[in-house]
Design brief:
Order of helices and strands: HEEHHHHHHEEHHHHHHHHHHHHHHH
Number of domains: 1
CATH superfamily: Amino acid/polyamine transporter I
Strand content: under 5%
Number of helices: 22
CATH class: Mainly Alpha
Number of strands: 4
Length: 517
């Protein structure tokens, strides 16, 4: 996910375009500042301050981890079996397989935050931030289990075979328990508006902007072929066409693309990181030692252990979206008769996003560019830089092995951004239909609008709009986790029933099923 990362401006922002940007940003600034001041209000312990919303997410993850008896550990093997299709039932209601639902959801979380955001975390909190990032990712697996189980359990199946699920359905059930007239409708609407706002800005325009910026940088920057006037508009039109070609077919089309794109881009990126580590093999043990030592005995990090812990937790929370409910929208489209099965599959998300991808980025930076992150940390601590440039740090690490490796990084960023674009189109479509109704005309109107915002994203840069969108996304966390607490007993009972059915031999892998006549 791209939340809380600086926007890279494109070269096209001059003259009239710049005036349009300033006007829109100026109008949004008061609103953005007011909402952000509440959502990202700091909790202070001595010299350490961090957004309260981070503690809200982490506390929820701890509660669910303990409440469901470390489901992310004892259910990991079964989760991988489900994701590999060993229990798939093609006749079950739904639109996509377990693996396709997983890759669609992962494509919405794995993005620039896994590359630039992790580098920023290492620069601010040192290698020890990686340790706490992993811990937060492991805890977040339990939250994903809960929200995605509920996403399937309370989904609505439409006559045409499509489904609508996720928080738009289970939050209504949760808040009706409070027996306050109208409260459920209001909170579901708040959640839908928040998802829609972030999807159009952070999930769409920001990703489009980053894709063009990376392409421009790789081709020679402002002096290259993409630095000329009008290049961003043409690029945006091409990108929007590609996005439209995918999203017009709905979740089945999106899942088909992400089921191929996500594994490919993850493999390319991880192999690139492994190549860097192989060239620096002697330094790898020291890097892991620095990660563990830095977690409990950090040097040069403001706030000591608490400071480095906060940095790691915050990066994980901003990266894997556990607790925001967004991933449950994609997972609810799975073909299954047992909601808990998708809860198991979903818990793999933070493991892939945070424990694997984010950790690979952090270790690569620590091993290959030790001086770069040390210099960035010292500059940040001295107040010389408001935000370390994470993309540059990661790119520098890649370049230490092979000079053209930053091109690989640029390709990875482009793929991550594109996959995020198409997945968030589905999330925001469901928010749109929740607010404005589900008709063919309404859905087509939204898809066209989404593609228009893709073009806008490559041409314009709205810092205040994106700050507002980030804050809106974490409003989702506030509403969603409240709903998860209210539905805690229902998930526990579903888990017990599913476990009992497995033990009784009622649910078995495909290979063990008796052939039907």
């Amino acid at each position: 996910m791209s939340a809380s990362l600086p926007l890279l401006a494109t070269s096209a922002t001059t003259g009239p375009i710049e005036r349009v940007e300033n006007a829109i940003d100026g109008a949004f600034t008061p609103v953005s500042d007011a909402v952000s001041a509440v959502i990202f209000a700091p909790v202070t312990f001595g010299e350490i301050s961090f957004p309260w919303i981070v503690s809200w997410l982490i506390i929820g993850a701890v509660v669910f981890t303990i409440g469901y008896k470390f489901i992310q550990i004892r259910g990991f093997a079964h989760a991988t079996a489900l994701a590999r299709g060993k229990y798939d039932d093609p006749t079950a209601p739904g639109e996509v397989t377990h693996f396709q639902a997983l890759t669609a959801a992962v494509s919405g979380t794995v993005g620039l935050g896994n590359i630039a955001g992790v580098a920023v975390a290492v620069s601010i909190g040192g290698p020890g931030a990686t340790f706490w990032m992993i811990v937060a990712g492991l805890l977040g697996m339990a939250t994903k289990f809960v929200e995605c189980t509920l996403g399937v359990a309370f989904r609505e199946e439409h006559p045409d075979g499509t489904v609508t699920g996720g928080p738009f359905r289970y939050l209504a059930v949760a808040f009706r328990k409070l027996k306050v007239p109208g409260l459920a409708k209001v909170l579901v609407a708040v959640y839908a508006v928040a998802i829609l706002a972030f999807g159009l800005a952070g999930g769409n325009m920001f990703q489009a902007n980053q894709t063009f910026a990376q392409a421009e940088n790789v081709t020679g920057g402002a002096d290259g072929p993409l630095g000329s006037g009008g290049a961003s508009l043409i690029f945006g039109l091409v990108l929007a066409t590609l996005v439209g070609a995918v999203i017009i077919g709905g979740i089945q089309s999106i899942a088909k693309v992400t089921s191929r794109l996500v594994p490919a881009m993850a493999i390319v990126y991880v192999l690139a990181c492994l190549t860097v580590l192989a060239f620096n093999a002697t330094a790898v043990p020291g890097a892991f030692a620095a990660i563990v030592d830095g977690a409990f005995d950090p040097e040069g990090v403001a706030g000591g252990i608490i400071g480095v812990m906060v940095v790691g937790f915050q990066r994980a929370a901003f990266s894997n979206e556990a607790g925001l409910g967004s991933a449950a929208i994609a997972h609810s489209a799975v073909k299954t008769r047992h909601p808990v099965t998708e809860g198991y599959v979903a818990l793999l998300e933070p493991f892939i996003d945070t424990v694997i991808i984010c950790t690979m980025t952090a270790v690569t930076i620590v091993v290959a560019s030790p001086q770069s992150w040390l210099d960035a940390r010292d500059a940040y601590a001295a107040g010389e830089s408001p935000s370390p440039d994470g993309v540059v740090l990661t790119s520098d690490a890649f370049a230490t092995v092979i000079p053209w490796f930053p091109v690989v990084l640029a390709i990875a960023v482009a793929l991550f951004a594109f996959s995020t674009l198409i997945t968030w189109s589905y999330y925001t479509l469901k928010a749109w239909t929740t607010l404005f109704g589900r008709t063919p005309g309404s859905e087509l109107t939204f898809k066209l609008l989404y593609c228009v915002f893709t073009v806008i994203g490559t041409v314009l840069t709205f810092s205040a709009v994106l700050s507002f969108a980030d804050a809106m996304l974490f409003i989702c966390a506030l509403v969603n986790i409240l709903g998860l607490y209210l539905l805690f007993p229902e998930v526990r009972q579903m888990l017990r029933d599913y476990t009992a059915a497995r033990r009784a031999g009622e649910i078995v892998p495909i290979a063990e099923r008796e052939p039907t006549a």
